[in-house]
From TrEMBL:
The keyword Repeat belongs to this UniProt entry's keyword annotation: yes
Signal peptide span: none
Biased composition (Polar residues): 468-484
Annotated spans, Disordered: 468-487
Record's keyword terms, sorted: Repeat, WD repeat
Protein name: Neutral sphingomyelinase (N-SMase) activation associated factor
BEACH domain ranges (all copies): 170-455
WD repeats: 556-586, 605-646, 647-688, 728-763
Gene from which the chain derives: nsmaf
Amino acid sequence: SNVIAPYRIERVSRLKLSFVCSLLFEHFFLLSLHRASCLEKLGDQTAMIEANLQSRLARSSFDKNCFQNVAEKPHMECEVEMVTPLVSNPGHVCITDENLYFQPLNGYPKHVIQIKLNRVRRIYKRRHCLRPLGLEVFCTENDFCSDIYLKFYNTADRDEIYYYIATFLENHMTEHTAESYMLQWQRGHLSNYQYLLHLNNLADRSCNDLSQYPIFPWVLADYTSAQLDMTNAATFRDLSKPVGALNKERLDRLLARYRGMPEPRFMYGSHYSSPGYVLFYLVRVAPEHMLCLQNGRYDHADRMFNSIGETWKNCLEGATDFKELIPEFYGNDFSFLENKMSLDLGRRQNGSLVCDVVLPPWASDASDFLQRHRTALESQYVSEHLHEWIDLVFGFKQRGSEAVAAHNVFHPLTYEGGIDCDSIEDPDERIAMLTQILEFGQTPTQLFCTPHPQRITPRFHNITRSSSINSPVSELSPVSQSEDSSFEDLTDESRKLAWANMSNLTRVSRCVVRCSYNRALSSCLMLADGKTVACSSWDNNVYFYSVPYGRRQDTLMGHDDAVSEMCWFDDRLYTASWDSTVKVWQCASDGSSSHKRSQCQLLAELEHDTGVNTAGLSPAGTLLVSGCKDGAITIWDTSSYETLQQVHCHAGTIHHAAFSPDSRHILSVGADFCMKVIDVQTGMVISTVKAEEEQRCFCWDGNSALCGGQSGDLLLWDLLSSTVTKRIPAHSGAVTAMWMNDLCSTVITGGEDRQMIFWNLQS
């Protein structure tokens, strides 16, 4: 009867058990025959209904008298179905230069549904019944319920309307990607709740499709205490494990069965999201859906959603219960927890009526429960571990060997691509397969194929020298609480204020560089003593000059090709070269009045596949990034000189690469016109922006970037929305160099026009 629940077998004698088993076998055998008979009839009925609908649709068309404006110009119309929970309503869609219209054949819920195109904020392509036929339209930014969900009869019609609507959306194609949302979430511009909604949307989850309803995690493990202690890690669920692996004893039993199972093997016989589970939670606000799914009756009273604590306990201990939560548990509408319609949901075995959901002791009422639950979702602990759950549900642990290692393997039919229903010729068999897929549950579309980066949380600072690329959160150094912290906070606020006003950057002065120096310089920097300038040259050498004496002190001949860039930290000099190496030198001064350098000792030689065009250090000097002519970014540990990550992210030479102030991200720009943001810990490219021109150099704060373009202009980029917020005319040739002071209030740029321009922020 479409009920998903554990079957209870009490202790009985061996003879009685044998008798019971024979009865159960006979019962399920007869049930399967009945099911097959029903499916056979259903196939005939479906074929007849489908033929009737297609005939009616072919004979009719959209009534253009429904246009809101006689001047509207129709773009196209076609046959579609409007998808709602458990029902698909056939009709016609028509799109004009002003509106999207849907006219249902039966006139329900109204004669015509109209959506103004200038109100559309988001659109998503959807898979429906495992085929790319769906389109969902939203007129709000954050609501997870759409304004309309349409199923087309062919992908070409769906795509044509999708791209037509997209032309009305500013930056639609670059804004709505998992990468861009990830960067916004990582840097704290999206809450955990908002980010999960976006991921669900991108993974084809919709509140209009109960078989693909949005999924949210259980985040708490304490539903019995009088007070909820969110400072205690034991209060929270282990987000690195699927629900089925949270109880070790149950997991051991499941693994024993899994090892003895023929291929294709699976660990869990039920899914974490299915129509039955969704309606289990929502029966008090959508009773008609459960009645539809349950053949006109509610489920048994003891199997209803009676108590949050009992439901969690059953998810931990039940033999077949592995369900997660739905977004309503973290929203503002608590009506799904209360029986406001006074529904007759039955009486339990203990004699009590099924009414409101029993809440944990720490919640005073339903509103208080949702508020505390939402607070738990946004807590420090969950923010630090939510990426682990994302790996399981939307990420690289969803499938393959990583899923096996994480005990995260479900039935093959729940995965996209598990079966091609269009290849099944027998209509009855195809309908049976689709019915099984739709009722059993579907795994979300996989969004990430590499480990998801961790969120940047306020109490953590730069990555320490000893940390590796797989460092847990505990190895990140805490923010200093020293007496200088107030000064550091003030400096940080000054920087934030400066970047917020970077569009007010104003030219102060300019000068033409006339240099008689007969060697072309690639970069220069002031050493820590404040009295020595190091200059790298395209003639393969590095030259050291004394500022007080105005003369060359020494020459370092350490490369076989041009030295492209240098960086300095403490007593170490890093030189990048087109000879495919970055060399690390320990430089010391003899302390004499002439400040003549006594030695430059080679400590390490970091080899690359091609010439190195740029190099940069993290603020703490613990990490080095190098960018090559082949488009590869390499991240190095400066204490061990080991490669931590290598990412081939550009299609051409990398012009510049630099760490964010918190060392969590790297921004790179290249000859392929692309700007890439890379997560340091995982090596994942989490944002890609295609510019209209090459970006040659930049300074950035982790959210925004001031770039020097090939055109000579300065471009202020909002990396979270992938948009240029200000274009500032600067040089008559490409901007090739940029420097910004520590407070981010002064900028100096240099260009191919042989000019240096000094800039200040207007107050």
